Amino acid sequence: MITYASLTKPGDRAVNEDSVFVYGEGDRSLFALADGLGGHGRGEVASKLVIKRCFEVFKDNGTPEQCFWEAQKSLLEEQERLRASGEMKTTLTLVVTNGNTAQWGHIGDSRIYRFYDDKLVGRTIDHSVPQMLVMAGQIREKDIRHHEDRNRLLRVMGTEWDNQAFELSEETKLRSGDSFLLCSDGFWEWIVEKQMCKLLKIAGNPEKWLSLMETEVLKNGTGKNMDNYSAVAVSVR
Known about the structure:
The chain is an alpha+beta fold.
């Protein structure tokens, strides 16, 4: 059985440019989160547009790969229509379940964390300058959170791609004890992975887990010009 919960909040910003979406039909489920970029409300438009298009493709039995390609196409078309090239961009994370399997994908610095039996087993790799510096051995993983270039992204939805810019996992068998956390950078910036695991262990369900993590996020981020923060928690039992 799959259970889930979601939240999206503006933080200290006037506009919430994050978008989240969850949908289930039979054995198939879609969990999606996008963090819009662009200012002047354009990021909000971008994140909502790609989420909406992903849902349409998924509902028509499309694959996660098709969701990314079709959402990218729709976003570029909307940029052209509004003459807003370069002003409407967004990250995108997706987790799709189909019966006993799951597949996930991402672009940008919104993350997907994977847990098993309350332990972290992996996360997506940010498409950002600080992540690149980590991979080059120039900074430590923990230094990403407050790095001066943390908002410099190398891949996003809404810029022209020469090749496939998003990353997609293999289809993976689901196990009882699996958990997923999709979250924007405004969320993971203020909570470390060790705390995510600790709170997962005591929570008992996705709604409580998110509530406990949000308390930690607010404790660490309040008064520090918090960005929009959003998350989707998924549990397999």
